[in-house]
Amino acid sequence: MRMRVLGTFLTAAAIAAAGTAVPAQAAEGNVIGAGAPGTIPGRYIVTMKAPGGLSAQSAGSRKAYSARMSAKQARQLAARSDVALVEQDRIVHAETTTYKNPVWGLDRIDQKSATLSKTYTPSDDGSSVHAYVIDTGIRITHNEFGGRASYGFNFVNYTTTASDCEGHGTHVAGTIGGRTYGVAKSVQLVAVKVLDCDGEGELSDVIAGINWVTANAKKPAVANLSLGGSNSPSLNAALQKLINSGVTVAVAAGNENVNAAKESPANLAAAITVGATDAKDKRASFSNFGTVLDMFAPGVNVRSAFASSDTATASASGTSMASPHVAGAAALVLDAYPTWTAAQVRNYLVAQATTGKISGLKGSPNRLLFVPAPPAAVVIKTSGLTMTAGTAFASQLALASSRRGSWSLAEGTLPTGVTLSAAGVVSGTPTGPGTDTIKVRFTDYVPTAVTRSIAVTVNATSPVIKTAVLPDGAQGAYYYQQLAADRTGTWALSSGDLPDGLSLNTNGLITGVATTSGSSTFTVEFTDGWGKTARSELTIDIA
């Protein structure tokens, strides 16, 4: 029996050490999904119990394997005390029905009324969030993505190039974060390829892709799974672990027009399960339904990017198209509240949803995705800054209310030696006095930018003459003494007289040969480079 951890290969010796060998006459247990439509002969997913016999609620602590074995071996393995469950691997498919022609979905989700406003104004752009598209891959060079799309991993071919040969994943990515068709227009998109060129894939590969995101996601993060099939405890356990790790997950409800309660991953309570509506706010004829749904989103004739070229677009219908609307909305929420848990994001979107507008629900919640309008622009409170030349300065620019964003200088020039950081801290040591007016800009996460003019005043302190006493001199002897101040500047005699024969130059040097004896009292004046002056009365006695 050959086995591998999903995402990590094990040697035969390691498997034996783990105690997974199956006795020839072992008891037999139940294999989940055995022989069901779409199952893969000879392929099974085995979930081991965690040390200490943790319960099913601790699924995130257990190891899952993809294994090739006979049906009998699978039943024998399912009976082992150290095995939590054995599930037959199967084909998983993308939840799409048709590709056709035009964009109304964005217009619908930013307003409560069914009358479209022909505008879309999102609450922000999602720039700080990574969105993991677990699908057929992404054409990352598409113009819609502007360099924001990248490859994660390809679990179909086990390579690092997760390109899209079907189109589904690119379309989904475009709805999450395309610059024209996307909900979160600056989100970072990551392709995790688990479905092939026919939009189908093995359940074990889907689980491997989910586990890869759990291990590698850059937070804050969302993930979208526009795929599904019949109930799978293994798939749901992997997805629960991803959600527990802090990633918000949106999933398609499915396109069979049945109750989604028996569909995975649609029936996972911790995920945001999304049904599809049309432009008349009616549940799409194909959309699955039921109480496991959290909300609906546009899913009929949704235009987005397509994989056939870097400029290609297509319109598609399916819950596959509805789910990425919600994934994009979750990215907007996380951009504003990056520390929120997946449950907080889900609860917020559920609470914000438009209610009472959808028809044909069949027991589903009457909630339609709503992306709130941007918050009101913040007000910059700081109106002026006062600092002192030659003295270190630091001050935080202030807003009237808290908002995440960055600061920049919009107009004018700060005093020499002073800078403005993106965090809004004005700091440095100004080199000289003066007054000026600058304009600062604060750009929040929406992004909305506000500016304000700020008066900047740099005061100069008066200089200090450090010389307090001058030494005595002798008649006929050479006299030499340097006056001192706390900065550079020029010196002059303000009043009185120096002893006969002595003089003061502009550098503050008193020199000469005294020709007469006696005491002389005089006042010197020091002027610094900013025009500030100081005076000091001094005396020289000549013996």
TrEMBL record:
<keyword id="KW-0645">Protease</keyword>
<protein>
    <recommendedName>
        <fullName>Peptidase S8/S53 domain-containing protein</fullName>
    </recommendedName>
</protein>
<dbReference type="InterPro" id="IPR013783">
    <property type="entry name" value="Ig-like_fold"/>
</dbReference>
<keyword id="KW-0378">Hydrolase</keyword>
<dbReference type="InterPro" id="IPR022398">
    <property type="entry name" value="Peptidase_S8_His-AS"/>
</dbReference>
<feature type="domain" description="Peptidase S8/S53">
    <location>
        <begin position="133"/>
        <end position="359"/>
    </location>
</feature>
<dbReference type="GO" id="GO:0004252">
    <property type="term" value="F:serine-type endopeptidase activity"/>
</dbReference>
<dbReference type="Pfam" id="PF05345">
    <property type="entry name" value="He_PIG"/>
</dbReference>
<dbReference type="Pfam" id="PF00082">
    <property type="entry name" value="Peptidase_S8"/>
</dbReference>
<feature type="signal peptide">
    <location>
        <begin position="1"/>
        <end position="26"/>
    </location>
</feature>
<keyword id="KW-0720">Serine protease</keyword>
<feature type="active site" description="Charge relay system">
    <location>
        <position position="320"/>
    </location>
</feature>
<dbReference type="InterPro" id="IPR023827">
    <property type="entry name" value="Peptidase_S8_Asp-AS"/>
</dbReference>
<dbReference type="InterPro" id="IPR034193">
    <property type="entry name" value="PCSK9_ProteinaseK-like"/>
</dbReference>
<dbReference type="InterPro" id="IPR015500">
    <property type="entry name" value="Peptidase_S8_subtilisin-rel"/>
</dbReference>
<dbReference type="GO" id="GO:0016020">
    <property type="term" value="C:membrane"/>
</dbReference>
<feature type="active site" description="Charge relay system">
    <location>
        <position position="135"/>
    </location>
</feature>
<dbReference type="GO" id="GO:0005615">
    <property type="term" value="C:extracellular space"/>
</dbReference>
<dbReference type="InterPro" id="IPR023828">
    <property type="entry name" value="Peptidase_S8_Ser-AS"/>
</dbReference>
<dbReference type="InterPro" id="IPR036852">
    <property type="entry name" value="Peptidase_S8/S53_dom_sf"/>
</dbReference>
<dbReference type="GO" id="GO:0006508">
    <property type="term" value="P:proteolysis"/>
</dbReference>
<dbReference type="GO" id="GO:0005509">
    <property type="term" value="F:calcium ion binding"/>
</dbReference>
<comment type="similarity">
    <text>Belongs to the peptidase S8 family.</text>
</comment>
<dbReference type="InterPro" id="IPR050131">
    <property type="entry name" value="Peptidase_S8_subtilisin-like"/>
</dbReference>
<dbReference type="GO" id="GO:0005975">
    <property type="term" value="P:carbohydrate metabolic process"/>
</dbReference>
<feature type="active site" description="Charge relay system">
    <location>
        <position position="168"/>
    </location>
</feature>
<dbReference type="InterPro" id="IPR000209">
    <property type="entry name" value="Peptidase_S8/S53_dom"/>
</dbReference>
<keyword id="KW-0732">Signal</keyword>
<dbReference type="InterPro" id="IPR015919">
    <property type="entry name" value="Cadherin-like_sf"/>
</dbReference>
